[in-house]
Design a protein that fits this description.
With about 110 residues, the chain is mainly alpha-helical. About 55% of the residues lie in helices and about 10% in strands. It has 5 helices and 2 strands. The chain has a two-stranded antiparallel ribbon with strand order 1-2. The N and C termini lie far apart (about 45 Å).
Amino acid sequence: MPDRSITRGSTTGRPIMVLLDALGKRWTLRIMWELRDGPQTFRNLQERCDDVSPTTLNNRLRELRKMAIIDHREGGYCYTALGTELGEQMIALDQWSARWADSVKD
């Protein structure tokens, strides 16, 4: 079962709910998005995330590492194998959302 200690209110224990709760925290998706191009240092991530506070960035990076979605290596923070899969799904969702936005225009 996924670690629910990083989520806000998921009580079901269902992995999708735990994941969505974790990704729904402010800045988490943005951090994931900024890692799609490859490893980033802490300072670079902070700049790419519109100067998110260091405390918030540290907390989100710690949570993503605990979830085994990202890791910290010599080149900076980067996706794990699971994170790469999730990143691919995020790109597919981004493409879908663009089609959806076009279809609902007035």
